[in-house]
Amino acid sequence: MHAPFGNMWMVRNLIAYLDSVKSRDPAPRSRAEILLYPGVWSLAFHRVAHRLYRARLYFLARAVNHLSRFLTGNDIHPGAKIGKRFFIDHGFTVVGETAEIGDDVTLYQNVTLGGTDPANGIAGKRHPTLGNGVIVGSGAQVLGPVTVGARARVGANAVVTKDVAEGATMVGIPARAMLVDVTAYQRDFMPYGTPCTDCFDPEKQKLELLQCEVEQLQKRLAELIAEQQKPRLPDEDSLFKARDRA
């Protein structure tokens, strides 16, 4: 009696998931096309592997994980905790054992959620925690038991080794926060987590500030030079002294 309702619930969840993927990737023409994505299959395999892992069937969990990696190119450890509507665009992504991923997270190709030496004082937790709505651009590395806040963006090829505030956009090696135009920030989705403009690059801002300071110094120096070169008339005291000596 409950089976039809259960099947309907699964179908609705699947449709909602496929629609969420389509909202983040304009390439597919239909939901059926999304079902061919390796990232979708990676998540499906991981759901099975994670259940086996929690049941302490570690060998079977690893077997499913290896099959998934062979078929999709993505390596998600069975122990990783992954929320709803997770999407890996393209592939060759690595997710470590103690990684925790929230809802509506997007990872692009060649992303690593890697671990570090547990001697940092956090026993057992070696991999990152990603909040809801996080986007990690292609080639980015998020390393260690750091926390990436909700709706944060990690730009392409960035290396994150420290906690990231909610809503921050991180770029560079090591990753640092950058300013983003409010119109771009308010968009629901930022492809690759990377603003396609250099107007708010922190390095460029520093150079512009230095350029302004140099221009001000040059202007002041020119004023001083002009003041020094201006011919001076003798003051009245010097005239009186010269007359007295005469």
Automatic annotation (TrEMBL):
<dbReference type="GO" id="GO:0009001">
    <property type="term" value="F:serine O-acetyltransferase activity"/>
</dbReference>
<dbReference type="InterPro" id="IPR042122">
    <property type="entry name" value="Ser_AcTrfase_N_sf"/>
</dbReference>
<keyword id="KW-0028">Amino-acid biosynthesis</keyword>
<dbReference type="GO" id="GO:0006535">
    <property type="term" value="P:cysteine biosynthetic process from serine"/>
</dbReference>
<dbReference type="InterPro" id="IPR001451">
    <property type="entry name" value="Hexapep"/>
</dbReference>
<dbReference type="InterPro" id="IPR011004">
    <property type="entry name" value="Trimer_LpxA-like_sf"/>
</dbReference>
<keyword id="KW-0175">Coiled coil</keyword>
<keyword id="KW-0808">Transferase</keyword>
<dbReference type="InterPro" id="IPR018357">
    <property type="entry name" value="Hexapep_transf_CS"/>
</dbReference>
<dbReference type="InterPro" id="IPR005881">
    <property type="entry name" value="Ser_O-AcTrfase"/>
</dbReference>
<dbReference type="GO" id="GO:0005737">
    <property type="term" value="C:cytoplasm"/>
</dbReference>
<feature type="coiled-coil region">
    <location>
        <begin position="200"/>
        <end position="227"/>
    </location>
</feature>
<dbReference type="InterPro" id="IPR045304">
    <property type="entry name" value="LbH_SAT"/>
</dbReference>
<comment type="similarity">
    <text>Belongs to the transferase hexapeptide repeat family.</text>
</comment>
<keyword id="KW-0012">Acyltransferase</keyword>
<dbReference type="Pfam" id="PF00132">
    <property type="entry name" value="Hexapep"/>
</dbReference>
<protein>
    <recommendedName>
        <fullName>Serine acetyltransferase</fullName>
        <ecNumber>2.3.1.30</ecNumber>
    </recommendedName>
</protein>
<keyword id="KW-0677">Repeat</keyword>
<dbReference type="InterPro" id="IPR053376">
    <property type="entry name" value="Serine_acetyltransferase"/>
</dbReference>
